[in-house]
Target: Acetate kinase
Amino acid sequence: MSRILIVNAGSSSIKLAVFGEGLKSLLTAEAAGISDSGELRIGRNRQPAALADHADAFERLLEGLAAQGYPAAGFDAAGHRVVHGGASLTRPERVTAALLDRIDACSPLAPLHNPHNAAAIRTLTALLPDLAQVACFDTAFHATNPETAVRYAVPPSWQQAGIRRYGFHGLSYEALLRRLAETTGTAPPPRLLACHLGNGASLCAIANGESVATTMGYSPLEGLTMGTRSGSIDAGAVLDRAEQTSIAEVRRDLQQQSGLLGLSGLSNDMRALLEDGGEAASFAVEHFCYWCARHAGSMIAAMEGIDAIAFTGGIGENSEAIRTKVLQRLSWTGVPESAVHVIPADEERQIALHTGKLLHLE
Ligand code: ADP
Model:
């Protein structure tokens, strides 16, 4: 029987999941608010915890798993979510020293994520040098996008510097496709609009099971209105603000102070905005839905039509109100209710699947 540990290290959180035989989920754990007012959750047990940094949080999580009967030495393999695989890491890979170097080389493309992903791999390697580890890349699913979709219209020197569209949420979209096939028992619809709507939000045009376009680009900043990220904005406006303030301030504003939070002045949390119902909150909600539908038009054009829509992510799965608003704006597509699907996000199991497959685990 195989036991697989899944590691999903974010900018201020680490999520772990343990899978057993038949990819049964055995236990999940999460450290949130690292270097801030932290919290540790092992299974259903939550407690406040001062988590100095990612290494500290990871150690505490592994102790928590061990206390529940899942010591690190008992794992047959580990699978990691790695946010950025750059242009060349386009499928899951067995971790080696050379692969770690390549993940490090992608760190400038995802400075808030890749260094933490690589650090988690190194921590486990130091602890268990013989443990087989696999890295799964969140950009990989979009490697099938055509060059016209991937390129920005910029000079060659930009292209050489790696400035192109990569796309993210790939593991979520792969999981969505798998779950959709499991529930419908059929091949994926020829032209599927997939909507990952969470704190981070993106759309993906999936034609015959392959990504052909997605709304996130060079970084997870492009595309939809998000929790605290602006989504698409004229680069001219960004340049002007950078000239008048500072690069650091613009970066912080666009990533942490914009989106639903910036529009409402209240919260980045969709549920809180829906409950608030005031003018500012409602405007932020309408903005989110309007731009979701408007970008959907672009995805539909990339597929030259649409047969089905699938929602996933915290908002996509849980908020019927948001789904209804978005679907109303897309009623012109003629997609029937029977072709609208709601699929729980399942990235961890997707990583476990890739890990098991690559390592030929039973
Ligand atoms: P992340 O991108 O950080 O993984 P999630 O996918 O967990 O985020 O999504 C978080 C978002 O989902 C928050 O805006 C939260 O308010 C929203 N959400 C969760 N449940 C509901 C609900 N029942 N109604 C509306 N929004 C919800």
About this structure: The pocket of adenosine-5'-diphosphate is lined by residues 198-200, 227, 269-271, 274, 313-315, 318-319 (CB under 6 Å). The mean pLDDT is 96.
